Amino acid sequence: MIRFASLLEGLLFARGRTTVLALLRNYFETTPDPDRGFALAALAGRLDLPVVGAGLLRTLASARTDPELFATSYQYVGDLGETLALMWPAEGSGEAPRLSEIVSGLRDTAKADRPSRIAAWLDASPPAARLALLKLVTGGLRPGDMAGPARRALADMSRGHVTETQIEEIWPALSPPYEALFAWIERRATRPDTGGHAHFRPPMLANPLEDAELAALELADYVAEWKWDGLRVQLVGGADPRVLSGNGDDISASFPDLAGALNHGAVLDGELLVTRDGGVAPFADLQRRLGRRAPGRAVLERFPAHVRLFDILCDEGEDLRELPFASRRARLEAWFARVRPARADLSPLLAVSGPDQLRRLCAGTRAGGVEGLMLKRADSPYRAGRPPGLWWEYRGGPFNIDAVLMYAERGPGERGSFYSNVTFGVWDGEVLVPVGKAEPAEGVPIGIDLDGWVRQHTAARFGPVRDVVKSLVLDVAFDGVRRSPRHRSGITLRCPRIVRLRPDKLAAEAGRLAHLTNFLAGDDP
Amino acid sequence: MAHRGPAHPSTWLTVRPEGLYCEPGGFFIDPHRAVERAVVTHGHSDHARPGHAAVLATAETLAIMRARKAAPASGRALRYGETLAVGGVSVTLQPAGHVLGSAQIVLEHGGSRAVISGDYKRRADPTCAGFVPVPCDVFVTEATFALPVFRHPPPAAEIARLLGSLALFPDRRHVVACYALGKAQHLIALLRQGGWDGPIFLHRALQPLCELYGEFGVELGALRTIADLGLEGPGGIVLAPPAALDERWVRELGEPVLCAASGWLRLRKRALQSGAELPLIISDHADWNELLATAHDVGAPEIWVTHGREDALIHALGQRGIRGHALRLLGRGEEA
User: Fold this and answer.
1) Which terminus of chain A is more solvent-facing, meaning fewer CB atoms within 10 Å of its CB: N or C?
2) Domain A399-520 carries which CATH code?
């Protein structure tokens, strides 16, 4: 647990992907089974532990600490688990429990006995491990989405022997503590047998298409579809039916209403949506379903799940991925006509006549669950990852707005000593409201030195964040606008990037919020 | 006829706007503004203000004050353990273990004894003399980390984390943000103890005090300056004051690992605010356990608590039968 706790600390403070990957790889290389496997599961959000309520923290605090000292400390620290971990009376000089011991211990201990079991572990652990332990058992361990980086670190660890894609493929069939996976990576065994279990096919992704590139495309070679604003999923039928997310996580438990769409022997690619009255509900409705295990009946009725299918990867054991897209589409249509799965339909193909027609098509559909257009080469095989030149996504943009620089932070990785990560805003009446956060796009000449400007115009500092004089206008490109109740402006920009600095403009000339909320028109609030 | 028992320190040691004042001796202790006569515990700027007419302190503290442009018009040096009569008060300095020259002020008057701790720590630090507990009637203690959540880990374990990161990222410079007086030299000594024999590069703001430590016989080993960075291969440790991390030289280091060293980094929000990738919990102040152990060691029935979170400490002292009392002193900053 000490090693896992220090890994979590390292990941929490790490800036930049190379650091994250090095920390993960070092941990996996130097930690024995089965601890490293349980750690992998915890990082990927796949560690199922009996839930111990946050009430445990209060119980332990009142049993083992002075109430007045605890109250004063909690007020100062601001986090219940951290307060308890830090002021826990033992000095942690015993033998700290291993992660695997905690996992099996929690499973084997009756609910009523868990607090005393946890207290004994705390007694034997140093403070950092106590904090990780308390977060782990109360479900408060949120390492961010580490599944991807962890798989990448495992591929690095294999020194080219196993690729990230290969790990992704068998990921849904594996379970903690992943001993067979580690044995494969360390060349102690062959690829783990996935048996009859679901097998993940890493999805094929599209490259963004800028407006200027659209004209250069030989459109006759392409088929067009809407790009739906939902969650990419893979439906795996067969003996062990599953709904897998775009990164291979098994999300079947969250979508029991899709059982009727899985009653077949095919593997399908599509977009998970919430539909209502025949239309696509806003993305926010889908968010109400994500991450909710075993949703109740009211949620299932209010936010019904639906899959819009656009590809077929396997049919009754026959791998179709090498077929050209046009043939797969024909197979998909024939299969759909035959099987008629519930809660699913086909994403329609769109007629394409030329770039201008595509632009008009795109501009006319800023809402209704559509993010833009997909252009797929009719002869493209299904290739994992983002192969160049086969699939494109066209959002009709980018759009641009003049926004005012509001706050700045240091960037990640090698930009760590530059104030390059900035929050910008637009006018809502007389007030500037933040609408996004971005870094200057790679290789974009930005005229004046952004970092230098921030340093010379700092008005206040809040920890690592600098509040600057609100006078610098940025030309920000973005792909769309999304509702976001978490933000003061009520929206966020999709994929914003700073194209250039506009020191020639006055802050008062910057864009207005109403201009951005126009993009939401037609989108149900 | 007046009662002739010992004069309780509260009758001759009082709080004035300038700071703690010893009436029969006619001097302040660590006043936060310029005064005629001051006794100064150590050289940190919130204790050693510039502009005093006369200062009594250790020779090291006086030298530090000179180096930091805070020299008094006249300075009188006192060795640890040496006693000087000032007015009707005898003044003795005893080591506080905080930084080079740091002293507790032992005052005796009218048959009673008060000890003012200044800032102190109890753990061994090769760069300064270790804390000596002095039995007394009133102990005036610092309380920077006076909450039970502050229990500093062993410094050697924190240094091992830094060395572990250097092993994992051998090509990246590790830049440690630390204060010029005390923390920098403490870190260098800990690194030497931890077996680091690679280069340590100093920001120019840290050089004068490291040289001053050397003049007082504190061995810090071979040190380089950041001007030498260009001549050296990758990796290594750079020490710099926090304010210098905004300067251009940091941006020329490629992808440094930013580290910080402070007792405050025990708290996650503080550690995240610091912006450091590697927050090291290394402090020159007593932690919660040391504050309570010291209260026990000096055996004072009454403890006055200066800057810090005095409520928790006074509560815990009360549980141990010790009367705690908060001293409201102005002008105490928060350094670690």
Assistant:
1) C
2) 2.40.50.140
